[in-house]
Every structure is written in structure tokens, then in C-alpha cells.
Design brief:
Helices cover 0% and strands 56% of the residues. The protein is built from no helices and 11 strands. The strands form 2 sheets. Strands 2, 4, 5, 6, 9, 10 and 11 form a 7-stranded mixed sheet that branches. A 4-stranded antiparallel sheet has the order 1-3-8-7, with no helix packed on it. β7 and β8 form a beta hairpin. It starts with a strand and ends with a strand.
């Protein structure tokens, strides 16, 4: 019903920036949340940032002040602007979409690697 496609991952030096995009297609309607999570091998997938259909945002403590999440005017694309990147930010980043009490949808993930 909902498909998510991430883009923008890559390799960047510590202190640099990357901009991730997530394009949602399908049944995009109602009250919903879109967000970014990240995961490294053997670790639990963790929330990075999320934004509601009403524009409310929240961030993991580890990225506050460095990352910014936003939506486009059509509410079908979510952007994660990542600045002042650290090596600890290296992970596969996944986009997600969920309506209230609805199915949680995931993208395929995009690799972000931050080098020293």
C-alpha cells in the first residue's frame, strides 16, 4: 500500500554533510508519521528523527542540533539534512511511514559512512 525509496547515502568525511531523501508512494493520507531510523550490524534499529503530518518533529539526543528533518509541500517526501557528521553516525538509514495504529512501512535503506 505504501512504498518508500531512500536516496542520498554515501561516504563523507567527519564534519561533513549529507542530505537523505525518502519518497513515499501509494496510499499517503491521514494522520501519519514519517521518519528516519538507523542500524548497524548486531545493533538495535534506533530512531534518528521523525516528523508528523502536522509538522511536529522529534530527534534522538545524539543528533539534536546536527540533523534536521522536513517534509515537502505534498507530504510525500521526507528529507533528513545531516550536518557535522560523526563516525558514530555510520549506519544503514531506513525511512519509515506509519499512520496511527497502522502498518509500519520501511524502505530498503541507504548506507551512510562517515570516515575519520
Amino acid at each position: 500500500q505504501v512504498q518508500l525509496v531512500e536516496s542520498g547515502g554515501g561516504v563523507v568525511q567527519a564534519g561533513g554533510s549529507l542530505r537523505l531523501s525518502c519518497a513515499a508512494s501509494g496510499s499517503i493520507f491521514g494522520i501519519n508519521v514519517m521518519g528516519w531510523y538507523r542500524q548497524t550490524p548486531g545493533k538495535q534499529r534506533e530512531l534518528v528523527a521523525r516528523i508528523t503530518s502536522g509538522g511536529s518533529t522529534n530527534y534522538a539526543d545524539s543528533v539534536k542540533g546536527r540533523f534536521t528533518i522536513s517534509r515537502d509541500n505534498g507530504k510525500n517526501t521526507v528529507i533528513l539534512q545531516m550536518n557535522s557528521l560523526k563516525t558514530e553516525d555510520t549506519a544503514v538509514y531506513y525511512c519509515n511511514f506509519q499512520r496511527t495504529l497502522g502498518t509500519l512501512y520501511w524502505g530498503q535503506g541507504t548506507q551512510v559512512t562517515v570516515s575519520s
